[in-house]
Amino acid sequence: MLTSRIVRYIIVGGAGTAIHLAILAISVEWFALDAVIGSTMGFVGALLVSYLLNHYWTFQSRRSHLSSLPMYVTVSLVGLALNTGMMYVLIHMLKVWYFAAQLSVIMVVPLVNYLLNSNWTFSSKSNS
What we know:
The chain is built from five helices and no strands. The two termini are 20 Å apart. Helices cover 81% and strands 0% of the residues. The mean pLDDT is 90. By secondary structure, the protein is an all-alpha fold.
């Protein structure tokens, strides 16, 4: 079960990442927004899609949205803070190209989010 859950989480993460990167690229390339703002917007767009897919498909949660959504948002805000902070440091302090910076961040934030969501948000111990 754990293996199939991880595979589903990776698929959902891939979809969320595609949404995140698309919003980032469109924000920067088409609307000339700062890359940190574009990344933040992409993170929020990915959050909405990922929550629904993770709730129903990855973790097959029985929790109500009133219970699980605030927890998911909390975990996602931790991820957002990590994402934004890392993007700021990589882009503005280390002068890394925004897209390479985001790819680096993608190696860290999803792992943190999975561990928190698996052990807290959608944990079977708290599914009541």
